[in-house]
Design a protein that fits this description.
135 residues, mainly beta, 5-stranded antiparallel β-sheet, globular
């Protein structure tokens, strides 16, 4: 099943992140003061409130921290049918809300190793989603 890929709102603060997704790269912000890894992309560190943050390229690997199977979607997802909405804990630490794709819904489980894939939304962005790592 193919999930919809709605175009994200791109702001000056997130433009570099979205641009990297079109190249198959997942970027995170890291605070240079307290070393916290930051998700969702923003300039200010939510931990220490420093503005001294920088982009780093993430590994794109993580594990499913929590998930839910949405049986009925809304908005752009109305016709999507059942799909997985999950928090993935990235190797770098932060957790991101995303979709799990490329797997039988009944096979998804907490702790499952996943890797990022990108679904194009057009020339300016791609949505990071995750699929199980082949064993």
């Amino acid at each position: 099943m193919t999930l919809p890929a709605p175009v994200p709102v791109i702001t000056p603060e997130t433009q570099e992140f979205w641009s990297a997704t079109t190249q198959g790269r997942l970027l995170l912000r890291q605070c240079r003061q307290c070393s916290e890894m930051i998700w969702y992309p923003r300039v200010i560190c939510p931990g220490c409130h420093s503005l001294d943050t920088a982009w780093i390229e993430a590994s794109g690997r993580g594990t499913i921290y929590s998930f839910s199977i949405a049986r009925r979607g809304q908005g752009a997802y109305t016709a999507a049918g059942p799909y997985v909405l999950a928090y993935v804990e990235l190797e770098e630490g932060p957790r991101m809300l995303t979709n799990i794709v490329g797997v039988d819904l009944e096979q998804v489980h907490i702790g499952q190793a996943v890797e990022v894939v990108f679904d194009s939304t057009g020339p300016d962005a791609a949505l990071p989603r995750f699929r199980p790592v082949a064993s």
